[in-house]
Design a protein that fits this description.
Helix content is 51%, strand content 18%. The protein is an alpha+beta fold and 449 residues long.
């Protein structure tokens, strides 16, 4: 085995590997012997098939497979031993790779292009400034939060007359052009509909003032234009719903109205836990604090985006562009060269940011420990429980739920990445100049348009 590396410039190099028979033959022989042991061919006892016949049947693919295994092992061993910090993965060289005849060759030479991670300096200080946009919590946001909780713990009460946002139950029956019920037509019973989500004002007006047992004639496809919802409502196939335009009669069997929960101690306890607040003012103050805590995450996200943009410009990192374009296409089969070319600026900035982030983490010993990951997962779990009105969840339940969540490797990786971003944000806030600016939620959202 002979391995050489030739640097073509500061960022690109070619690695050549020369394999001789001794490098791979023992592995090939071992695999062929295993094929012989398992082979079942008419005229031969198990394990007694001549090796010549086995080689004729399996020799070439086994050779190619084992040579490639040795090649991969030796290539990455060389990279590791020489501590090469690479961008992407090695790619077959497009000009220096010699053709291979697997039937005749016993010695092989392979050539790979590699791209080295660039070196750069990044000296951060209080002379570097990034804005931190603090979102102001206004009365409208607080009231929306209060209304959300009031609706969440509200209830449906029976009503006698349809007014505006009632929920109705009733039976559908399809009508013909003359207004008669179609024999063997579409019939759907005990169907709930909400006037609040009815899109056609003319249809909605027909219901206002109606009471139980009253029959309303309308076109449900016009009132509820979403054909998927229409199919579900009438219990028909989606294909049928796509072309349905006929009128139906709807016989009201029940009217109910949603009543939000009253602003009282019972609601306070359900939302925040028993005895946590004792007045409407305290309740609203806690709602405001909760909203502010949630919005900090949004502000941190914007801060990280702005930090990425500033640091990428400051670092001025040179990249092996031609190699990276090839690598992106090679590792994303659905990508075309045209797509990569048109969006390469974004790709390259993402790569530069990843290099900067890795340097910040390494140079400043930023670490995420298991306890932090578990705590974050517990917060996620608590939020899910709270969506169902469970405010005081026992600690052991949260811990068990978090551990189940972290058993999913993909989910655990997302949480780890999120916490590492938090560490980077915290480091930047302590290292550079942070200029806080208060903005409204509308102003903040416009920054992402």
């Amino acid at each position: 085995m002979n391995i050489t590396r030739t640097n073509t410039d500061d960022l690109n190099a070619v690695i050549k590997l020369q394999l001789v028979k001794e490098d791979y033959m023992s592995q090939v022989d071992s695999v062929l012997k295993e094929h012989r042991r398992k082979a079942s061919i008419d005229g031969f006892r198990p394990g007694k098939v001549p090796m010549g016949l086995i080689k004729k049947m399996y020799g070439t693919p086994v050779l190619a497979d084992e040579v490639n295994k040795v090649l991969g092992q030796e290539l990455y061993k060389y990279i590791e031993e020489n501590k090469l910090d690479l961008l992407g993965e090695p790619l077959p060289n497009e000009t220096e790779q010699k053709s291979i005849n697997w039937e005749k060759d016993t010695e092989f030479e392979f050539a790979f292009d590699i791209a080295m991670a660039p070196t750069y300096t990044l000296n951060l200080s209080k002379r570097d400034k990034i804005n931190f946009f603090k979102i102001a919590v206004d009365e409208k946001m607080i009231q929306n939060g209060v209304d959300m909780h009031a609706r969440r713990f509200g209830s449906n009460e029976e009503a006698e007359v349809v007014e505006d946002k009632e929920i109705l139950e009733g039976d559908f029956a399809q009508l013909d052009a003359e207004g008669n019920i179609v024999e063997d037509g579409i019939v759907s019973e005990d169907v709930a509909i909400s006037l609040e989500y009815m899109k056609d004002e003319e249809s909605k007006a027909k219901f206002v003032g109606a009471n139980v047992n009253q029959i309303i004639t309308f076109n449900p496809a016009k009132a509820f234009p979403n054909r998927t919802d229409l199919a579900s409502m009438l219990g028909i196939a989606p294909e049928m719903a796509e072309t349905l335009e006929s009128d139906f009669q709807y016989t009201i069997t029940n009217i109910s109205k949603f009543i939000p929960a009253e602003m009282n101690q019972e609601l306070f306890d359900k939302v925040l836990g028993e005895g946590k607040v004792a007045s409407e003012e305290e309740f609203k103050n806690q709602i405001k604090a909760d909203i502010e805590a949630q919005l900090v995450n949004d502000s941190d996200y914007k801060f990280l985006i702005d930090g990425k943009e500033k640091l990428v410009k400051k670092a001025k990192i040179e990249l092996p562009i031609a190699f990276l374009k090839r690598w992106i296409i090679a590792t994303n089969k659905e990508m075309t060269a045209e797509q990569v070319e048109s969006d390469f600026e974004n790709y390259s900035d993402d790569i530069r940011w990843q290099l900067i982030k890795e340097k910040l983490v390494k140079d400043n010993d930023l670490k995420v420990n298991e306890e932090e990951i578990v705590e974050f997962a517990k917060k996620q779990a608590l939020m899910q429980f709270q969506q169902y009105g469970m405010m005081d969840v026992p600690e052991e339940y949260l811990t068990n739920y978090a551990k189940q969540m972290l058993e999913n490797k993909e989910e655990a990786k997302k949480i780890w990445d999120r916490k590492l971003d938090d560490k980077v944000v915290e480091y930047l806030k302590n290292t550079i100049k942070v200029e806080e600016k208060e903005v409204s939620i509308e102003e903040f959202n416009k920054m992402f348009e």
